[in-house]
Amino acid sequence: MQFTEIVSAIGYTIEGLGVLVVVVGSVSSTLVFLSSFRRFEEGVAYQVYRRKLGRAIILGLEFLIAGDIVRTVVVADTLANVAILGMIILIRAFLSLTLHLEVEGRWPWQEERSRLP
What we know:
- This protein is 79% helix and 0% strand.
- The protein is mainly α.
- The protein is elongated and about 55 Å long.
- The model has no long low-confidence stretch (mean pLDDT 83).
């Protein structure tokens, strides 16, 4: 097995972990929501659910970006592939930032306010 094949497999494994994080986070968030929405005041359960689900998606996006970087930089050495990687990273980073703003109510670089559980 060649080095590029090993690195490519590692990149795909990291991306697979990203998908797994999103799936497990989605299922976990949904189960917590369904089992506990009666404990919270009206509307709070939904906000907690959105926050937990958003965090799972953000973390999964980070893994997907890392997998793309590993595969593209080491395996694909053409300028076109690097440009495609750049566009993918920009799109995923934009999604991550906007999800963070939506979930946390602030930009990642702003100070934390008091939050819900």
